[in-house]
Target: N-acetylmuramoyl-L-alanine amidase
Amino acid sequence: MRRALRALALALLLAVPVQARAEALAEVDPARTTLGFLGRDRGRPRPLALTIGLDRPVPHSIAIIDGPPRLVVDLRDTRPPDIAAGDPLSLRWGAAPQGGARAILTLPGPMELMTARMGTATDPALTLQLVPVAPESFSPRTDTLTVLRGVPQPAPSVGGASGPGDDRLRVVLDPGHGGFDPGAQAGGITEAAVMLGFAREFAAALRAQGIEVVLTREDDRFIPLERRTTIARAKGADLFVSLHADALPEGEAAGATIYTWDGRSNDRAARQLALRHDRSDMLAGLDLSDTDEDVSRALMDLARIDTQPRSQDAARHLVAKLNEAGVVMHRTPVRGAAFSVLKSPDIPSLLIELGFLTHADDRANLFDPDWRERVAQALTRGILAWAADQHGQGTAQNAGP
Model:
């Protein structure tokens, strides 16, 4: 029943029109909109630079999809420009499904977004740079419908993610930060590097138990937050786990903490951490604002009726196994926060702060291979216990009288 409600909510989201805003819309400035290749033409693919002139800065979102490779740019609160088809810029303009203007550019081949920045009020323009990548390195968003319609696609329930005949549990691990956002730093060691290393160790522990694991990044690169959850959805994840070891907010105790989604959280430390976690997308000029209409927000809450309790159950199982292993936890080990990577309404999602690099004891633990192994094994046992519990609940719900 709960899965049916979730599917209904997501289906209704596809049909919800976004009301036009009362305030005046921003305008695209065609005279300041440019598109061109960078560097000399040596017979090889070249980077591409796009500038979209505006009369004021606006929230925006960016995606790369395939079939063929295309760049999709949505500008909120913006009037679609009246530019005739066949314009030499090769940008196709129209109305974005969630309101505002949408520009679509067919790319010359596989590319990835390197930088995206929105200018200031004195120089309002969105500037993007894309670079060519080899076909095997091309990672477009696979959920094209999500991009084109602006809502998430439902993920299969626990035990059914991997297709017919494959009932293995599937977990997506997300090493926090990466690329030009190193996260917290201590003595030349970055949070991004520490979490990537731990994610690999954690993945090995999970795979040893027959769990299928996907990492959102395998090296030190920038992955937009939205793409991290998109990867989880595309892979049919049963559980999404984001890994962090941040800087210690003033006045906060040390120790591990597990977060689940709470869009109404007013916890000061959680808000500070959310700003740090979201910093890479903000530096890249990607839109993290939550400006859904009230009805859409309500439908998203409806979609979480099934997912949110499962996220909270997963957090409790992990805390229990960490306690059994003697891992020091925060005085409040399970907390709620509005972290962007926890927004998915259809995949149970957790964000784990393993500790704080700026705290001496936590830092010593994070650098200790034996401690990391103990934590990875405890988290693995917690995930297995959670999956078994979920399977038991599903069996009980489906049992006849």
Remarks:
- Residues 14-22, 151-165, 278-296, 395-401 have pLDDT under 50 and may be disordered.
